[in-house]
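Onboarding guide, step 5: your first structure request.
Type a short instruction followed by the sequence, for example:

Predict the 3D structure of this protein.
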Amino acid sequence: MDDNLATGQCLCGAVTFCISGEFESFFLCHCARCRKGSGSAHSANLFSTRAMINWVSGEKYIKTFRLSGSRHTRSFCADCGSALPVFQVDLGLLVVPAGSLDSRINIRPNAHICWSSRANWDNDPTSIERIDGLPR
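The system replies with structure tokens like these:
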């Protein structure tokens, strides 16, 4: 597969997409908004001002939420709730949730951002036991 081509989909498979072009940055954001939106310790988003997205199927299932008074915007599948890419027109920026991609990507996270806002239980994840698969 071309290094500048990535494919992805939502969990239920209703929405599929293809992205052509390079990602310029990859951030793990620990702000409260991203924690709420992801339901996890942080969001993991890729950013590009040059990449183009092609919605292959299911574009009618995409819902977008914009938090009033902020730049916080997220898109998701109306059926399964999976995070999906969103193009922020005012910023000319494509934001792609890394977990929505099926393709391997050739960029590592640049940084943890909003680190001082992280959850109190998200302190030293490298010290936690690692289990391959589900716990018993």
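Each response can be followed by summary notes, for example: The CA atoms of residues 124 and 130 lie 13 Å apart.
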